[in-house]
Design a protein that fits this description.
Length: about 450
């Protein structure tokens, strides 16, 4: 059973759920609401190191587009190219779902729903965690966390869901677990109002006219579901979504903390973190795993050395005893050399374990806390030198318009790095055309 923390940014507040996961079962331990301006202090106090995040994005784009019928590795490139034609923001991260194939103009095409967010918005959310020494396992848009409750707990093909997040209401349309359409609007009433009914009916009409699909039912999720009896009639049957059997908490708590609770059930395909941020999470887990393996091997080697040293001591005692009894010296010497050859292969290991321990993690932490200004590091390469130092090469991108500004940004980064202990800058280079830089340095790892 693993303890996991999920948070949901909802307007001016952040909702946090601590839960235990066992298989597909979610047992809520405690839940709390924190003002957004106090969330950084909460992160500094919180002992958990990993979080699942559901976050509203002020700027997001979603639509259904058609593409040629291709394999997955080609589909993502085609989608990225098509989305770039629509978005003003050229640096974005997106998720998508295949709707299905159809015939258009005697050609077979694939319909795909995409949801895109500028990378800067994702970075701003992640930095709140990284700046406080925390890691983010996944980031889900609210509608995908809510839609995850439909996958296993609502029968039928087409449905609509409505939930509230802060002052916003979101109406979304799904079919067979795939989100087709999203409508977000402001609402200043806690309960379901006539204005909500109008938006629900407008969304149903739009889906029927443009998607040729009408939802069989409309489900209210979260606190808005508590006011289902106080509304006008909708053009599709209206109901409150039942609480999933595999989420264990009170119904009131489930309604209040709907999005973070639902995020425990949300699939990996809805994680909108871009590749570089996922690699940061992978690197952190890799270092943790490698450290554990190293410690295990260290204990194994120490045990093996102890066994061999004990053997050597026993043989030495036998030699001394043989000398005392007048045993042939040449025979004893020959036997001693045989035992010495057996110990020989372990001598390099003994010398290795006696060397000072590299402290590469300390460098990673120091780099994570360094202000790089207008520079962004995309890749870090490290190799060990014979004198226990590390050769470090940083590759990255410079956000500047001219060569002078690029040089200034690089000098700022170098000055910040020089403040760190045990670092010697060896070389630097800037590519004006690609707006990239390479910085080489040495890091003395042994204390």
């Amino acid at each position: 059973m693993g303890k996991t923390v999920a948070v949901s940014f909802e307007g001016a507040s952040v909702k946090v759920v601590h839960a235990f996961l066992k298989g597909k079962a979610v047992t809520v331990e405690r839940a709390e609401t924190i003002p957004d301006n106090e969330f950084d202090n909460y992160l500094r106090r919180e002992k958990a190191s990993e979080f699942i995040v559901t976050s509203e994005f002020k700027e997001s784009y979603h639509d259904i587009i058609t593409t040629p019928v291709v394999k997955k590795q080609f589909l993502e490139k085609i989608l990225e190219s098509e989305i770039k034609k629509v978005l003003i923001q050229k640096e974005f991260s997106f998720i998508y779902s295949r709707i299905g194939e159809k015939i258009v103009g005697n050609k077979r095409v694939m319909e795909v729903f995409y949801y895109a967010v500028p990378k800067g918005s994702i970075r701003n959310t992640l930095e709140r965690f990284y700046n406080n020494g925390k890691m983010v396992k996944a980031i889900f848009p609210p509608v995908f966390s809510a839609a995850a409750l439909f996958d296993a707990h609502v029968a039928g093909e087409a449905h609509m869901g409505v939930f509230n997040s802060g002052k916003s209401r979101t109406a979304f349309f799904t079919k067979k677990g795939v989100v087709y359409f999203i409508r977000t609007y402001e609402s200043y009433e806690a309960e379901l109002s006539d204005f909500d009914i109008q938006n629900i009916n407008m969304t149903i009409t739009y889906c029927f006219q443009n998607l040729r699909i009408k939802p069989s039912s409309v489900f209210l999720l979260g606190t808005i579901s508590e006011s289902i009896g106080n509304n006008s009639m909708t053009s599709a049957p209206l109901a409150s979504l039942s609480m999933p059997e595999n989420i264990h908490c009170k119904r009131e708590q489930f309604n209040e903390f709907l999005l973070p609770a639902a995020s425990f059930l949300t699939g990996k395909s809805s994680n909108i973190m871009s590749r570089e941020f996922r690699e940061v999470y992978f690197l952190k887990n890799y270092i943790t795993y490698a450290t554990g393996v190293f410690i295990m091997l260290l204990f194994l080697c120490v045990g093996l050395m102890f066994f061999e040293f004990k053997h050597a001591a026993e043989e030495k005692n036998l030699i001394n005893l043989a000398k005392q009894k007048g045993v042939d010296k040449e025979k004893i010497l020959e036997e001693f050399r045989t035992r010495e050859e057996k110990i020989g292969p372990y001598i390099p290991l003994i010398e290795f374990l006696n060397k000072p321990e590299p402290r590469f993690q300390k460098l990673l932490i120091a780099l994570g806390e360094t202000d790089f200004g207008g520079l962004k590091v995309n890749m870090l390469n490290a190799s060990s030198n014979s004198d226990l130092s590390l050769s470090i090469t940083l590759h990255g991108v410079v956000h500047a318009d001219n060569y002078s500004a690029m040089q200034d940004s690089l000098e700022h980064m170098i000055n910040e790095l020089k403040k760190l202990k045990n670092i010697d800058i060896k070389s630097r280079s800037v590519d004006l055309k690609d707006k990239t830089f390479i910085l080489e340095m040495n890091y003395r790892t042994a204390e």
